[in-house]
Amino acid sequence: MLFAPVLHAEWIKIRTLRSLLGALAAMSVATAAFAALAPSMADGDASDPLFAVFFGISFGQVAAVAFGTAAVSSEFRGGALGLTLAAVPDRRRWFAAKATAIALPVLAVGLFTGLVTLLAGEAALGASGPGWAEGLRGAAGCGLHLTLMALFAAGLTAVLRSGAATLSVLIPFLLIASFVIGDLSAGIADFLPDRAGQVALHSGWDGPLGPWSGLAVTALWTAAALLAGAWAVSRRDA
């Protein structure tokens, strides 16, 4: 089977699952809602108005992870993967289509969310807000980071074959462990997937990574997870 019809089939699965649509909505709301609090965030860190606007990304990425996890874990329930592979025997082609079907809606919603968040933050901060060039970089970084985190979760779910196992690892890591490591380490945390991608959402950064190199580090983590997921799908029984 050609790639296009496989992608179309995977897209139908995603758009008909209410939990996935809910995760996309939660990703957008969680990220953008904090823009209204940008003035109080900026008071705490006057040197970084950009992150004051995009502070909600810390919670939006949790919803992105939930989206990527649910999109893949649904295949491991009730023998769904066996039926899918009966229709698409090429397992790597199927997994590539699944990853693409995850990435496209998250990227579209993420970029839209980034623009809405920027506009809301600029309105809240007024003259003290980030410049538009910097803000547009942050909006683009927002969309890319959310997409990469969703794909990272998708790859890990394919390896673990369980949505519950993936979320039990990633959610505590994103909400707790990453911050603890950041407080205790000397720059090592900058290379964690969630922290590296967020460098693009800061006006300035003292660490070794810049906005685009930070996203590149997150992309490497994501590529590794997807390759591991593709290997797991191609080698294990459905």
Helix-strand blueprint:
Elements (H helix, E strand, L loop, with lengths): L2 H14 L1 H16 L4 H7 L4 H5 L3 H17 L6 H8 L3 H35 L6 H29 L2 H22 L8 H5 L13 H25 L3
What does this structure look like?
It contains eleven helices and no strands. With 238 residues, the protein is mostly helical. The longest helix has 35 residues, at 91-125. It starts with a helix and ends with a helix.
Strand content: under 5%
Low-pLDDT residue intervals, each spanning 5 or more residues:
none
User: Please, what is the average pLDDT?
Assistant: 89
Secondary structure category: mainly alpha
- H/E order of the elements? HHHHHHHHHHH
Number of strands: 0
Cα-based radius of gyration, to the nearest Å: 18 Å
Shape: elongated
Count helical runs.
Answer: 11
Helix coverage percent: over 70%
Task: Provide the descriptors you would attach to this structure in a database record.
mainly alpha, elongated, 238 residues, 77% helix, 11 helices
Question: Gist?
Answer:
This protein is mainly alpha-helical and 238 residues long. It is 77% helix and 0% strand.
